[in-house]
Amino acid sequence: MELLKSFGNKIIGYLDFDTAIPVDENPLPCSNSSDCYVILFAQKGSTVIVDFSIFKAEQDTMFFFNLGQQFQFRNQAKGHLIYFNPQFYCIAFHDKELTCDGVLFNNVFETPMIGLDTKESNHFYRIMVSLKDEFQIDDYWLEEMLRTKLKELIISASRAWIERTPDKNDMEVKEDGLSRKFSQLVEVKYNQLHSVKEYAELLYVSPKTLNRKIVNEKGISPNSIIKNRIMLQAKRLLANTDLTVKEISAQLGYDDQSYFIRFFKIHTGTSPLEFRKDANMD
Predict the structure, then answer these.
(1) Among 56, 118, 200, 273, whose Cα sits 20 to 30 Å from the Cα of 126?
(2) Contact predicate 93/103, CB 8 Å
(3) Predicted confidence (pLDDT) per residue in 103-157, tens digit
(4) Do the bridges between strand 2-7 and strand 10-18 make them parallel or antiparallel, or are there none, so unpaired?
């Protein structure tokens, strides 16, 4: 069952999904577009493919997908999906309240996902059902009520994420966390800024400080994070669009197509066109 509400250009939707149902009867809104955030509740046993990586839900699991992030299901996946555009609820605008930007969303370090115990699973399911029930109501308060339920869901997820953080008072859960700010910047600027120095300048720290902080906390260098984000977008565009390699190169901030092709091959072991061919055969 898909439910959708529009308030001018503000959109929020809800979908119960079950891949045992034929695909043409079970559409996946926003899974191949760049206009919606997605919160996915995948039931135990579901398999979710996210940006070329496969995740098997060994328990009920929450996923948080960014604008334009690619995902699909396998193996009779079941669950619930909420999607909304930035006009309905702006993650960046509400971040000071929720501390979720760079953690649940716009997280370049990892795919945000939370494996739920029984108590958490029941809690998130209750919120989602409550939000679903609101779609059946059509009155003056509907838009704000849907936004309130969505906010409750995001706050609960932020709490669950923080509970799993080794040091709950550390880095990205703080408003001024350098790692979280770096993550936010990379997600916005990866196609414009390609060097650690450029990000360090925006964060008012030295490249050495930024490198030490990210390596100590994440076990990976900021340079690798930047390059990995560029490569991910290149793969998305090659697999899911008809853009030429030259057009993709330009979108990612490379004026020299030959340099981009060499860069891509160094990181993947294959050329962009070979990657596209292999991706389309899957």
Answers:
(1) 56
(2) no
(3) 788 788 888 899 999 999 999 999 999 999 999 898 899 999 999 999 999 989 9
(4) antiparallel
